[in-house]
Amino acid sequence: METPASAAVAPAAVIVLAAGAGTRMKSRTPKVLHPIGGRSLLGHAITAAEGTGPADLVVVVRHEREKLIQHLTEHASEVTVADQDEIPGTGRAVQCGLEKVSATSGTVLVTYGDVPLLEAETLRELVVVHEQAGAAATVLSARVADPTGYGRILRSQDGSEVLGIVEEKDATEDQRAIDEINSGIYAFDLEVLRDALGRIGTDNAQGEMYLTDVLGIARSDGRTVRALVTDDAMMVEGANDRVQLAQLGAEMNRRILERHMRAGVTIVDPATTWIDADVSIGTDATILPGVQLHGATDIGEDAVIGPDCTLRDTEVGARAEVVRTHSVLAVIGEEATVGPFTYLRPGTSLGRGGKIGGFVETKNAQIGDGAKVPHLSYVGDAEIGEGTNIGAATIFANYDGQNKHRTTIGKHVRVGSDSVLVAPVTIGDGAATGAGTVVRKDVPSGALAVNAVGQRNVEGWTLRRRAGTAAEDAARAALEGRPENGATPTAGPDADDNKEHQQR
Questions:
Q1: CA-CA distance, 37 to 326, in Å (whole number)?
Q2: Comparing C-alpha atoms, which of 338, 314, 323 is closest to residue 287?
Q3: What is the rounded distance in angstroms from the CA atom of residue 70 to the CA atom of residue 47?
Q4: Across residues 465-476, what is the average pLDDT?
Q5: Which residues, in sequence order, are CB contacts of 327 under 8 Å at separation 6+?
Q6: Are strands 39-40 and 107-112 parallel, antiparallel or unpaired?
Q7: Spatial separation of the C-alpha atoms in residues 380 and 404, rounded to whole Å
Q8: Which of 37, 48, 211, 240 could be a cystine partner for 91, CB 3.0 to 4.6 Å?
Q9: Looking at the DSSP assignment, which residues form a beta bridge with residue 315?
Q10: Are residues 322 and 339 in contact, defined by beta-carbon separation less than 8 angstroms?
Q11: Measuring CA to CA, which residue among 417, 457, 423, 456 is closest to residue 437?
Q12: Which region holds residue 473: left if phi is over 0, alpha if psi is between -120 and 50, else beta?
């Protein structure tokens, strides 16, 4: 990028244009609210704008206004919203945005809500170039192999100044050969911008107020217009349809993965790994194939994630191991292990060195340090103390059909396999339950809870109740002491040898 090595000055304002209908997206969702990399397109634009430290950050809306305002209220409540009226065009959108800008002088950046790869660093450099040149306007441009469809930058003979921007339909053959294109992102002198917009009309084929007309007015007034060329053309690409949305999403993911790998994270298979923009990963963590890390997920140092995990807004401690797990709003402690085929629902917290094993589902459960839920269990609305072991196929029966109830289990408890804990119930420290126990009342510390009846064998049940089945044939053969195929057992000493051989 052609920039001086200088520190950027914060702009007076950034205006983000998000008023377009985005009809090519063919969606009930406004175009700028479509997500990639864990944020909406508009969210990425606002993040870049915030990175410049503006005094005012204004988002201009019109199409699906209420949906956009709701999104901004939930995710960027500090921005100011400006409404574009019925007069069309980017020039009018910026003019409406300026009505919300409190400053009377300084630099105003204009950007768009559908350019997700644009970075704050680039916008800061744009401000530097603009202010050091004392320019009335500075356009962010890019050089591309195929400029078809874009407005071309017309430069002075020495290349230092921008003479204008010509749209493809109006360009000559020589102008169409120019490979420097207009991104539509600008830095303006605030006073020049206000004045020029007041002089722009809609007397054109589209009946719109064109923002590009500001550059021509500035030139006619004897002011300087410059351009900053970025060597990263993808950074200024917009998403107009779902094909472009997917392309930009893939490129964003590639950049995110590269950033983590250069920071000391091992990503075994970038082709099958997706990581959102706000995910943080510690040094020497390993991400195995088939992993998706979404939202505000935080992975600690030396942790191993994968293969085949989807974690959203999940915290994983250092040196923990998580395999084939789906997790949402959960906390996994240091040196803990989770998986495979495990579902951690919101409110799950696993302590240091703890274990949640295969085919286990947890929800709103606090599982202490060193505690284990090894396999085939459901743990909901529960607190499990440190060192406790939950046997296989244990169910925390937390729902009575109307209300959820909580189970509290103390430290170093042993819950037998196939137990059912009917909440609300408490099991004290050091207690235990026998296999197959249904716990309906509190168990004191140190006690053993059992409620299984003595075993009773009903002789001959299969012969009476399963007549004519393979089970009956097998049972009858065993009872009569003959082979199951109906052959007569061999008599004499050889029979004993045969029996011994079968036993071996």
A1: 18
A2: 323
A3: 17
A4: 93
A5: 309, 310, 311, 312, 314, 338, 342, 343, 344, 348
A6: unpaired
A7: 9
A8: 211
A9: 298, 331
A10: yes
A11: 417
A12: alpha
Task: Give the pLDDT band (50/70/90) at residue 167.
Answer: confident
Burial of 14 (0-12, 13-18, 19+ CB in 10 A): buried
Distance CA 258, CA 241 (A): 26
The answer to whether the beta carbons of residues 79 and 46 sit under 8 Å apart is: yes
- Residues facing 12 on adjacent strands: none
State how far the Cα of 183 lies from the Cα of 48, in Å rounded to an integer.
16
Q: What is the pLDDT of residue 363?
A: 98
Which range among 19-28, 163-172, 344-353 shows the weakest confidence by mean pLDDT? 163-172
* Token output for 3: 């920039």
Check residue 454 and report its DSSP letter: P
As a whole number of angstroms, the distance between CA 445 and CA 182 comes to 74
Q: Which of 375, 405, 412, 501 is catalytic?
A: 375
Dump pLDDT digits (tens) for 239-265. Answer: 999 999 999 999 999 999 999 999 999
- The one-letter code for the residue type at 337 is T
Indicate the Cα dihedral angle 260, 264, 266, 269, nearest 10°.
Answer: 40
Amino acid at 469: T
Distance CA 234, CA 246 (A): 13
Q: Is 294 a catalytic residue?
A: no
Question: Which token pair is 407?
Answer: 């189970």
Query: What SS3 class is residue 189?
Result: strand
